[in-house]
Amino acid sequence: MEIDKENNTNELTNKPSDATSSKSTGGGDGAYQVPWIEKYRPQLLQDIVGNEETLIRLQAIARDGNLPNLILCGPPGTGKTTSVHALARELLGKSYKDGVLELNASDARGIDVVRNRIKSFAMNKVTLPPGRHKIIILDEADSMTTAAQQALRRTMEIYSNSTRFCLACNVSTKIIEAIQSRAAILRYTRLTHEQILSNLLKVCQSEKVPYTEDGLEAILFTAEGDMRHALNNLQAANSLAQSKPGGMVNQKMVFQVCDQPHPTIVRAIVDACDTGNLEVALAELQKLWNSGYAASDIIGTIFKVCKAHNTLPEGKKLEYLREIGFTHMRISNGVNTLLQLMGLVSRMTQMTMALQEKGKV
């Protein structure tokens, strides 16, 4: 989906754009929902939330107009693509649409695309503000083949007078060193709960979303620092709430939409291990497994719940996390059976019993 069409996007404020405000975002007849991740996508660098140090560097580039080749790396949903589009919009102004080429993972980006489409765009003459360059945005650049990256390296050198390249990726090490040495690397980190919550509250106010505090907490829990994930979950939970009389975005709605193991059940498993009650822990684990959740979903939620547990002794929590990490590794390697999860619960309970025998608990 092209995200440079300003009619389909909007600043992450309480002011929706004209195109989107004219379309109903409710569930009325003849209406359709605009994805909130597009409706509230920031258009300016100053509207982007989080990663302040990186944004300060980008704002300095926008102010001076001296744009180097860039590599933006970090987890998904932290604002990499939005940042580079906002930067291009501030640098090029009205020439934004003519001076920007975006290719993402959904496009063919083999060596032929680099040699033909990217090269032809770099060769085209476009009227730009004085001292500005054309910008080629390669989203998810770490999925490009090594041969395509090698061809891109030479293209970056030949057209350095007229064109700048901005590569967004999740892992910078998957970009060949020849390109890394030709670009400035900007790193993004996951957003904090406070940063995501501030935007969720703005969207809730703008869209008149009825919510409860535990509902927003559940969205923050499932988002894991991903703003895109948080907004998608909020919109989906709101749609489900609207389908029920007097519905609100609460914890039950959110976990029903996200379909992740409920933290309360997982907390009961961890608490049972903490008290040495193996039978209760295994029974709760069996219920989760019978509900159809994958081993990777269950182990991920166990990790998050254990990390955020506020009554576990620090030493025991570290031992638990160590065992959870080993089990997560085995599940990631393909051994995703119930036996692995039961083995984890048994080892966690065994740790508690061993500490009780030594008189440390």
TrEMBL record:
Protein family (similarity comment): Belongs to the activator 1 small subunits family.
Xref: InterPro entries: AAA+_ATPase (IPR003593), ATPase_AAA_core (IPR003959), DNA_Rep/Repair_Clamp_Loader (IPR050238), Rep_factorC_C (IPR013748), RFC_lid (IPR047854)
SMART domains named in the record: AAA
GO BP annotation list: DNA repair; DNA strand elongation involved in DNA replication
Keyword Nucleotide-binding applies: yes
PANTHER family membership: REPLICATION FACTOR C / DNA POLYMERASE III GAMMA-TAU SUBUNIT, REPLICATION FACTOR C SUBUNIT 2
Any one Gene Ontology cellular component term annotated for this protein: DNA replication factor C complex
Biased composition (Polar residues): 9-24
Protein's UniProt name: DNA polymerase III, gamma/tau subunit
Ranges that cross the membrane: none
GO molecular function: ATP binding; ATP hydrolysis activity; DNA clamp loader activity
AAA+ ATPase domain mapped to chain residues: 66-201
Keywords: ATP-binding, DNA replication, Nucleotide-binding, Nucleus
Region (Disordered): 1-28
Compartments it resides in: Nucleus
Lineage: Eukaryota, Sar, Stramenopiles, Ochrophyta, Bacillariophyta
